[in-house]
Amino acid sequence: MTNDSIRRPPPARAAGTAATLITVAPTGAELEKAAVPALPVTLEELVATAKSCAAAGAAVIHVHIRDDDARPTLDVGRLTDTVRALREGTDLIVQLSTGGAVTDSFARRLAVLDAGPDACSLTCGTVNFGAEVFANPWPFIRELYARTQALAVVPEFELFDLGHVATLHRLLDDLGAPHGGHVHCDLVMGVPGGMPGDAATLVQAVAALPEGATWSATGVGRTCLPVMFAALAAGGHLRVGMEDTVSFARARPVTGNAELVERAAALADLAQRPAMTPRDARAMLGVPDRH
Ligand code: KMH
Ligand code: ZN
Q: I want to staple 260 with a disulfide (CB 3.0 to 4.6 A). Which of 55, 159, 216, 240 is the partner?
């Protein structure tokens, strides 16, 4: 990492920031279907969710899948079927999670790329994750990144803490630009153990990003709204979904992912930065159209 690269914030209106990229993260790996019946866990539920979220303004879907018992899985055959079904049913950019669940092995997480997604998440460091640890040591990060380059998958760099930003610089210095040539990050804020979900922290993290990078922000749990407002004010993009938030308001559970996307799109409209189309999102992120 060079001092030069951490001092300058990305340009406020880099390509695509006039519109708002909305990513939906509908499922995650932590919640149980029994506790949250609206969580999409079957392929049919996931595709239906993807369609409704696309109609509401999403351009990217961040995907975790479940097995027949609704438990998180990284089965490559199932992931491949999921990528195919989402491509057939929508024009969303399909971003598979390589984070999986905290219990998934590094080997299984690396193998996610064999399912041939457009994009994948790539977390830039280990973080305490509630009572668990989400492990991302440097050799794993490096190997996963090299694999995205070799397999032409566009990574989204997941940053749960400021130290992860430093690791992102190290990764880019070491292995060069991602496939597609553009760096896009997601600030995952408010995880118990990661950086807090507030405006001051968001501004600090954004100032440290590589020059020219675009970024989204995700506020977990009750930080959803403050992070969304701060991200819109600071020229960033949004990730919402039941992976991160299952309360729409105090004592009002989310009824489905689409209403979270609708709210994000409404706020983006108010900010005069309306939701970005999947086509424009592909152009911004460097994701080729594979239809
Ligand atoms: N489920 C978390 C342990 C990602 O998708 O890349 C990790 C996670 C990050 O959700
Ligand atoms: Zn995830």
A: 240
**Distance (Å, rounded) from C-alpha 14 to C-alpha 288?**
20
Compute the distance between CA of residue 58 and CA of residue 263 in angstroms, rounded to an integer: 11
Looking at all shown ligands, the one closest to residue 23's CA atom is 2
The pLDDT tens digits for 195-250 are 999 999 999 999 999 999 999 999 999 999 999 999 999 999 999 999 999 999 99
CB 53 within 8 A of CB 26: yes
For residue 27, how far is the Cα from the chain centroid?
Answer: 12
Per residue in 80-119, pLDDT tens?
Answer: 999 999 999 999 999 999 999 999 999 999 999 999 999 9
Measured between alpha carbons, how far is 44 from 11 in angstroms, rounded to an integer?
40
**Pocket flag, ligand 1, residue 134 (CB < 6 Å):** yes
**Model pTM greater than 0.85?**
yes
Phi/psi of residue 177, nearest 5 degrees: -70, 155
Q: How far is CA 139 from CA 29, 94, 136, 265, in A?
A: 23, 26, 8, 38
Instruction: Show contacts of 64-71: CB within 8 Å, 24+ apart.
Output: 64/25, 64/27, 64/28, 64/29, 64/97, 64/100, 64/243, 65/27, 66/27, 66/33, 66/41, 66/42, 70/32, 70/33, 70/34, 70/41
Q: What residues form DSSP beta bridges with 134?
A: 127
Give the position, in ligand 1's atom list, of the atom nearest the Cα of 121. 6
- Residue in the block written with tokens 């340009």: 11
Distance (Å, whole) CA 58 – CA 216? 13
Beta strand extents in 89-149 (DSSP E only): 93-96, 119-123, 127-129, 132-134
CB of 158 sitting under 6 A from ligand 1 = yes
